[in-house]
Design brief:
Structural class: mainly alpha
Shape: globular
Strand content: under 5%
Length: about 140
């Protein structure tokens, strides 16, 4: 019962992705061809909201669901892995027409070919977990 709020947050997230057209292959196609600002505006909004929440986490205004302080560690500078990961993520996004969040919304909309992308995302995560110790830092 105590996890029910996370279920509703997930539903709200799905509604927002759907209504903002973030699950639209056409909108993603426009973005990668630099024909529309729509997706860039969504991404900029998400980054701005995330920055605000990170600030609140660091000021200990927001705590986790158990009342504990959320600690955010400063990460090492890893430009090679950031660029490589961003390239792989962007390539997958462009080829599949979906990033990980909208995959589940698309399944809810009965876009069942996206299940292939979901399997690929899970497989990629599994392979990363195996190779993470030997990848560049």
């Amino acid at each position: 019962m105590k996890y029910l709020k996370f279920f509703f947050i997930g539903i709200l997230f799905g509604i927002i992705l759907s209504k903002s057209e973030a699950i639209s292959w056409f909108r993603i196609y426009e973005m990668f061809k630099f024909q529309s600002f729509h997706m860039y505006g969504l991404i900029a909004t998400a980054v701005t909201i995330s920055m605000f929440f990170i600030y609140l986490f660091k000021k200990e205004v927001i705590k986790d669901y158990q009342g504990n302080t959320i600690l955010i560690k400063n990460k090492e500078k890893g430009y090679i892995r950031t660029l490589a990961g961003g390239f792989i993520f962007g390539l997958g996004w462009a080829l599949a027409g979906a990033c990980p969040g909208p995959i589940f919304v698309m399944i809810g909309y009965s876009v069942f070919p996206i299940l292939i992308v979901l399997v690929g995302a899970i497989l990629g995560t599994f392979i990363y977990g195996i190779l993470s110790n030997i990848l560049p830092k």
